[in-house]
Write a structure and sequence with these properties.
This is Rho GTPase activating protein 6. The protein is mainly alpha-helical and 453 residues long. It has 21 helices and seven strands.
Length: 453
């Protein structure tokens, strides 16, 4: 009954505009993909999947790629090995040639080992949410007590059966990925919820990644931490700082010995700091090696044919379909792709010669989006490991290679808008939640309104 009344209180006004329970009007606007909550991103996958099946025939089977979960028992198994096998444990790769999700997991373990230990409840959101839940629980309990005095007097109740909730029960519910979960926001009144929103929105984007995780099936209502491998981000930052004017970046050869040394340092879990002493070409080669050696390509084998076939569509439709396919990717794939395309679009923007503020000519790096797509395309999108059969060139293979390059080039050229979630897709996400979780829709609307303002 309560959910039904809540659904009636939330009104869709049309034109991607909603009224929240409080009567506040919220007009949906395009937002960055990484600003969506974990729950919204999962629902967005479903919405994008239905949209692709409904609106476009890509001439192939489309499926949502499976997220390869890291092996949680691996560390325990390694720890139980004998001392004679400890060297094998140290030499297991931490970054290269392993699934992307495992790299992210290893990075988080590395961060926890190297970050100074924090006291429990150091996360302000956890502390605030625990306090708000506790106070709302007491309010609710007091209300129940005052409204049922007569019934309590006629019911035998032992002194130990207190109706008040105990403090420890309220705290663990906050220790979930991203902070607030579906089952706790209904306990907060409007003022408390607004206070919590303000606090959450003031936190840095990686705060969620530092919280204790609980192995449950709850989906967070806050944005999840950015899932980009440490090695990829380090390489991208180095190249953006030192390599934008380097002619032939990604094309000129590197020192195999130095690249192998850097690779080993990352794989051994060392704290690697890339600075001006490291060759731009070595770092560029290292980044290409990471992408090349992923067991499953960044754009996934499941979506290989779908991405290729987007090039058969009208040019005006290609960007929106590529965007929908990207929304099908697991978060670690789409976040890493976004970081990579940010670098490549920046490199392409410095391809041509230019003049500085004093009129002096600055030599461009000559790496256009086409040149970059030619180099990175085969590493981002392929359907099988390189073997003798794959190496045999044919007309069909050449056509596919051309399509791969065209897809990646289009991604580089449209990077600025590719990861912005349009209002119509957000609207479908909210519609899909309204029937089952109206309280969640109200919370998300108020959070969006806070973000817009």
């Amino acid at each position: 009954m309560g959910d039904r009344l809540l659904r009636l209180s939330i009104t869709y006004l049309g034109d991607f505009t909603w009224n929240s329970v409080s009567g506040r009007s919220v007009g949906l606007k395009p937002v960055p993909l990484q600003s969506l909550s974990e729950l919204e991103r999962v629902r967005l996958q479903d919405v994008a999947f239905r949209r692709l099946l409904r609106d476009r025939d890509l001439g192939c089977h489309i499926t949502i790629p499976k997220s390869h979960k890291p092996k949680k028992s691996l560390r325990k198994k390694l720890d139980s090995l004998s001392k004679e096998k400890s060297k094998d444990k140290e030499t297991m790769p931490q970054v290269f040639g392993i699934p992307l999700s495992q790299v992210i997991s290893n990075d988080r373990a590395h961060k926890q080992r190297h970050d100074p230990p924090r006291e429990e409840h150091s996360d302000p959101t956890e502390l605030m949410l625990s306090f708000l839940q506790l106070t709302s629980s007491f309010k609710r309990a007091n209300k129940e007590l005052s409204s049922s005095t007569s019934s309590l007097s006629s019911t035998s109740e032992t002194p130990n059966e207190s109706p008040l909730p105990s403090t420890p029960d309220a705290v663990p519910r906050t220790r979930r990925r991203g902070g607030v979960s579906v089952d706790c926001i209904t306990d907060l009144d409007d003022n408390q919820s607004r206070l919590l929103e303000a606090l959450q929105l003031s936190l840095p984007e990686e705060a969620a990644g530092n919280r204790k995780k609980r192995h449950d099936k709850k989906l967070s209502l806050n944005p999840i931490y950015r899932q980009v491998p440490r090695a990829v981000d380090s390489c991208c930052q180095h190249l953006e700082k030192y390599g934008l004017q380097t002619v032939g970046i990604f094309r000129v050869g590197s020192s195999k010995k130095r690249v192998r040394q850097l690779r080993e340092e990352f794989d051994q879990g060392w704290e690697v700091h890339l600075d001006e002493e490291h060759s731009v070409h070595d770092v560029a080669a290292l980044l290409k090696e990471f992408l090349r050696d992923l067991p499953d390509p960044l754009l996934t084998r499941e979506l290989y044919t779908a991405f290729i076939n987007t090039m058969l569509l009208d040019y005006s439709d290609q960007e929106s379909i590529i965007q929908l396919l990207i929304f099908l990717l697991p978060p670690c794939n789409s976040d890493t792709l976004q970081r990579l395309l940010c670098l490549l679009s920046t490199v392409a923007a410095h391809a041509d010669d230019s003049l500085d503020n004093e009129g002096q000519e600055i030599t461009g790096n000559k790496m256009t989006s086409l040149n970059l797509a030619t180099i990175f395309g085969p590493n981002l999108l392929h359907k099988q490991k390189k073997d003798k059969e794959f190496a045999v060139e044919s007309f069909a293979r050449a056509e596919e290679s051309t399509a791969i390059i065209s897809v990646v080039q289009r991604m580089i050229n449209t990077y600025d808008t590719l990861f912005m979630v349009p209002a119509d897709l957000q609207n479908e996400v909210l519609m899909s939640l309204l029937e089952t979780d109206p309280d969640v829709v109200d919370y998300l609307l108020r959070r969006k309104a806070s973000q817009y303002s």
